């Protein structure tokens, strides 16, 4: 039990998927959490209803399956995708679903409350004083009640909004509205995705018989172009499309809405005692429909970072937790930007300016300096050079990475000793072990997309350090098998050989 005046371990601002995932995970790890949600309307409307299959693992880790069972959802009925060519491809993605996001977020918040997370809603921050480890926070709860609390950490999961932000790609805007699904029987409930010359369309069934139409485009071009209103623009895009032409003249079930969809990163995501999570830390291009999954996953990583700082007395635990947290953020943004650029480059209309501007990095031409920037991004770059240099380095690494051609296993001569390939290096990597961050040795090599500390859930080190000197294969297998099942030892040796990470000596 927490004594009434004792500080909370963490105060989380915002009860979207990022905030509730962090709160639930921290509560599982034994911490006292106060979750503050501003919205008085609850469940509140929220865009971002298509959930990728990876959300399931996270829900399982949070033990939230039962709590989410009653959330209205539509199982994925396949997608018709008109992207690479002029004929639609039919895609099935097992495990994905479209949910009522308001109810999804509300069910997670109700679960957090039941598990012992304290919740203030509607409430907002009035003032903040103190410092890391002992924040003093004034809250306005409801219309008139004020409450003073203390917290060791503040986690900002308040969504898209606050600067500074570094745009990770040229600006994007999203415009969306809904029509009655029964007016489009020919679509068979399938999701539709279509590349148009000046943007792309996404459309899919929402729970309750509504059909969402969403246009993603360049906000400048959209403003300059006729017709001027968001609804007219959305209708014009449907009319110009191949898959959604029938929706162009249907009555809308409410106003067409518009928001920024530019991918960005908040370079101040880790400040002493204050962390940003979810959309407050980074936003991805909505083309992958994976924002919710990535926001939730990052919150789990943030909980591990916090657990390391709060529960680990080693003097370097704070620096290590920060390195891990920022590293995961950079990795998420860089990987997604890399994937998105390749995907934009595959569109049938990839030579159009909208597409070229978003696919340029694939050809290796686009540097960060050319990226369109939001808010005070330039100032942020000079203030957080290390994080941004890491982002550029990660993007360059991904852009330059070529998967190796696999060597046949038959080329491995068991009579010859093996050692690590000459280009291999042993580096130290922040890894999660028992819910805490620790430094682990990892193998780095140009044939690896990123340094590797574990393979098949088994630590590669200290074993591989012995391969600085030649070692017979039988001895390598014997050494690996001392800490893992024999078949895994064999797989690992084969995996390393096939990718050219080991070389024969003799
Ligand atoms: C157009 C568009 C389409 C998208 N489509 C998809 C999709 O199909 N699939 C997908 O996975 N992702 C999608 N996304 C991304 C997804 O919506 C976000 O990644 C996700 O909502 C992020 O969750 P979050 O918890 O960080 O923020 P949010 O979901 O925005 O939650 C933030 C919460 O904080 C509260 N809040 C705000 N300010 C305060 C404050 N000061 N104090 C207290 N509380 C506060 C808000 O009321 C809200 O409840 C899309 C994004 C856009 C822009």
Automatic annotation (TrEMBL):
Q: Which Gene3D superfamilies match?
A: 3.30.9.100, FAD/NAD(P)-binding domain
> FAD-binding domain: from which residue to which, for each copy?
9-312
- Per its UniProt record, what SUPFAM superfamilies does this chain match? FAD/NAD(P)-binding domain
- Record's InterPro entries? FAD-bd, FAD/NAD-bd_sf, Flavin-dep_Halogenase_NPB
Q: Which PANTHER family match?
A: FAD-BINDING PROTEIN, SLR1998 PROTEIN
The protein's name is Dehydrogenase (Flavoprotein)
Organism of origin: Rugamonas rubra
